Amino acid sequence: APEIRFEDVHFGYEPEREILRGLSFTIPAGQTVAVVGPSGAGKSTLARLLFRFYEVGQPGRAAADGTPAAGGRISLDGQDLRSFTQASLRRAIGIVPQDTVLFNDSIEYNIRYGRPDAGPEAARQAAQAAHIHDFITALPQGYQTRVGERGLKLSGGEKQRVAIARTLLKDPPILIFDEATSALDSANERAIQAELRSVARNKTTLVIAHRLSTVVDAHQILVLDQGRIVERGRHAELLAAG
Ligand code: ADP
Ligand code: ADP
Predict the structure, then answer these.
(1) What is the pTM of this model?
(2) Which of 160, 164, 193, 223 to mutate to test the pocket of ligand 2 (most atoms within 8 A of CB)?
(3) I need a labelling partner for 45 at 20 to 30 A (CA). Which of 27, 53, 95, 161 fits?
């Protein structure tokens, strides 16, 4: 798994309004770094930069999509993120987003989306790990049930578990959990957290969370506030610091 490095990253969606204000941190290969902080701090923005949803690295110049005011450098194993194609980044990075939008297709299609070469049995195992296999097989059309506007309506938590199954199946070297369990009830959350931690082992992982309590075993925790890292340390150190 690659090392991820942010060097003095600045970013804003609009001119004159910086959302990220000089972020520097490293996620060593195979380790987990968690970013915690209040809503609006810039956590999701930081995650989006990592898969080049927006560009970084042309200080004072608009990116190709017109996004203004970006500066700094993001790299994977020392190689500038801008030298990767979108397709290669998609293969390398698996993200479980906060709000999953599923394809208007079968549950199986949605789970196998990142790995169409994987067999149906592998998709079932991933669903089992995400605690939705029993739920799916109880549906009249099982894994072939269509979801979305033209099919089954899933709750936020169910959609999130489909996204988790998809990421488990894809098994990429870099993982991003953007409040990956925020839509789940606490019983499911605990079970799935254990699952997420075990897949995150030996992968370079960025965990985004509101609460410090959900990221106990990260190698490092960054506290983000208004686009700046205001504290960093291990879980116990940050708790001690209040
Ligand atoms: P967090 O994940 O910590 O809640 P976000 O990264 O989602 O924070 O948002 C940080 C700031 O950027 C917020 O003020 C938010 O309103 C703003 N923002 C997020 N996405 C966009 C966007 N697509 N366009 C303009 N502003 C945005
Ligand atoms: P919060 O409730 O604090 O907003 P979320 O549950 O929304 O946090 O998002 C953080 C999630 O990331 C955790 O609940 C858990 O599923 C996952 N997570 C936390 N720590 C780790 C870790 N060390 N490795 C892998 N995944 C983790």
Answers:
(1) 0.85
(2) 193
(3) 161
